[in-house]
Specification:
Blueprint: H1 11-37, H2 53-70, H3 79-95, E1 101-108, E2 113-123, E3 128-138, H4 148-164, E4 172-179, H5 193-204, E5 207-215, E6 244-248, H6 253-266, E7 271-275, H7 288-293, E8 298-302, H8 324-342
Parallel strand pairs: 3-4, 3-5, 5-8, 6-7
Antiparallel strand pairs: 1-2, 2-4, 6-8
Helix pairs in contact: 2-4, 2-8, 6-8
Length: 346
């Protein structure tokens, strides 16, 4: 009687089985990776234009903000310095004729209890006020660090965006929020400022259609091998840290695409983007992650922090380390993207 076997009997058959197994495993992985890495348009490559007079003035103003907020360590272990930073932010926003709103809360870790606050200003939308666009940054520093780049740089840019867009008449409600307690020991915990804020928004039923977290955004390096990545991304991105990054989870991919598209159309400055799983190293390392937890679309705009910045979370994260001219150019593109998301006058 003739018998049949499912086991291949020749090397050609074995080769066919191996090929099919490889395709079965790696083709879906390749498609997922292509989905994550695809970004509209192309990163700018070439010499940056000299700073205009307005960019020079903006660079000087952002330097002044970083000096005021992040010259010394400021967090709940240094409450006087944290209070000075918060007071400076509030005075700057009030000086722009914004009514300043505060979300005060107790921050609790294993050794201490302190009262801190998120700081918010708002431009009410004209035709779609129930749809909310948030631009935010944390203003506290990590233990042992003055926090000039992390995150005096993001704080400075939020302040200048609030100034620039104050009279822009957006269709959607536009909020600028400075968060407390992003850094350890609060990161990811219930006393993280952005999580307090996002939880409150969810409990109120607020319709946040976009959130941009400006995180560690002031350091750029043209040298080869100045940029590293989580291992999965290393083959696909440049090894020079001269670009600004746009990072989202898969749910927020459309928001990231819209933002980087407007950035690239506005400012000739290197830019890279990725939509990735939140569990990949670094992807959720800022306040945008708090909004993901509440189901809101959010992205991070960043110089990639620890993957580039040699002074990350150290005492050497001081205001003199930052490139304020390049921050001014990044500001131009981010401002255009925020204006478009909010439906604001240019």
């Amino acid at each position: 009687m003739q018998t049949f076997s499912i086991v291949p009997t020749t090397w050609r058959a074995w080769l066919g089985v191996c090929f099919r197994l490889t395709a079965f495993v790696f083709l879906p992985l390749g498609l997922i990776l292509a989905y994550m890495l695809h970004v509209p348009g192309h990163s700018y490559r070439g010499k940056l234009a000299p700073l205009t007079s307005s960019e020079q003035a903006l660079a000087s103003q952002m330097f002044a903000h970083v000096m005021a907020v992040a010259s010394t360590e400021h967090n709940t272990r240094h409450p006087d310095a944290l209070e000075r930073a918060a007071g400076y932010i509030e005075s700057q926003l009030a000086g722009m004729n914004y009514p300043v709103a505060l979300q005060q809360f107790d921050s609790i870790d294993t050794t201490m209890r302190a009262k801190v606050r998120n700081i918010e200003v708002e431009i009410k939308g004209s035709s779609k006020p129930q749809e909310i666009v948030i631009v935010g940054a944390h203003y506290d520093s990590a233990p042992g660090a003055p926090g000039a780049n992390d995150n005096g740089s993001g704080t400075a840019m939020v302040l200048e965006l609030a100034r620039s867009l104050h009279t822009s008449a957006p269709q959607r409600t536009l909020r600028f929020v400075l968060f407390a307690n992003e850094e350890p020991p609060y990161f990811g915990g219930s006393s993280m400022g952005s999580l307090k804020y996002a939880n409150r928004s969810r409990s109120r039923g607020e319709n946040i259609v976009a959130m941009l977290s400006l995180e560690t955004i002031g350091y750029y390096d043209d040298a080869p091998n100045s940029q590293i990545y989580p291992s999965i991304f290393r083959p696909f991105f440049p090894n020079s840290g001269d670009f600004v990054g746009f990072v989202s989870d898969l749910h927020s991919r459309e928001l990231m695409h819209r933002t980087i598209t407007r950035f690239r159309a506005t400012e000739p400055f290197p830019s890279e983007g990725v939509a990735a799983f939140a569990w990949i190293q670094g992807v959720d390392w800022s306040d945008h992650g708090s909004f993901w937890k509440n189901g809101y679309p959010a992205i991070m705009v960043t110089d990639t922090a620890i993957f580039r910045y040699p002074y990350y979370h150290t005492g050497s994260d001081t205001p003199d380390r930052l490139n304020y001219g390049r921050m001014a150019k990044v500001f131009n593109g981010v401002r255009a993207a925020v204006a478009e998301l909010a439906g604001a006058a240019k």
